[in-house]
């Protein structure tokens, strides 16, 4: 029983982490490293601190209330849960089209497979996870394996790229420039939109809830952010190593370019493996979490949850195959997710003080203060980003 509980906690953490580490995550990290250089380390540091503050607040409220985010929001303000669910599902579908395409690109780089065929094959693999009778267990195991593969490969590429670690460490605390777009994009890409709730909703489904579970919930939340951040740091160092050697990164496929410049043709194949692993786990995380936002609205939806998840993946794939993915939106998508974040987090902060939702639980004041600061900072940065976009 204890081993099963530990597996679920690790699975929830990795579901959140691998949901974050998708094609957009890889692209964003390489693009911003190219534009900011070693100073991008500061952006990563700030985003990690924000990510941890967000996840601890949200996962705690979900665990204590034993309710999913949409139900908490509806108890706070009727209709709010439906509004947030709409944003999450539409955003999740848009991201999933890119995720399916990213999986196809990964298999093309790895095996030379046609992108469309690769996308369909990856979707079939993701669907197979939810066709399993023990879908939750299958999902936990699959994300653990894929996460382990990504970490090993990026460690190797980071080592052979010979990054200037000293300069990266210095500029992490003493940056030469600060980019608000980069910060909000990273936060949005790591804990924005559906990603924020992926692990928390997984714990609800597994029955790991209540005040007694909070220490474990906290560890799982921090683990999820840590894994995603560790992968980003490794990719940042690999990209920085390539840049510091004076090599030019191809803007058409920046992450693939980094892997190839660092490790030759084998590096390009390894990029394909990482891209596939990142994309297919994001397909799973996006579909699972998006449907979890509507499953409590009707007993029929909850009863047919796995079928709807499969349908969600199939629709995403059909749209990619027939129309194509929005190639230029990978960076902007993270920023849009970052805009959703203040709405979701402020809802949870208020809910944490409603006895009808959390009973006699008292949210630590430090968490509330940190959460409130994050809402204010993210709102201000969101306004600045959209003013710049307009």
From TrEMBL:
InterPro entries: NRAMP_fam. It is a multi-pass membrane protein. The keyword Nucleotide-binding does not apply. The chain crosses the membrane at residues 36-54, 75-97, 109-129, 141-160, 180-200, 221-248, 268-294, 306-323, 329-353, 365-387. This is NRAMP family divalent metal transporter. It is found in: Membrane. Keywords: Membrane, Transmembrane, Transmembrane helix. Pfam families: Nramp. It comes from Sphingobacterium bambusae.
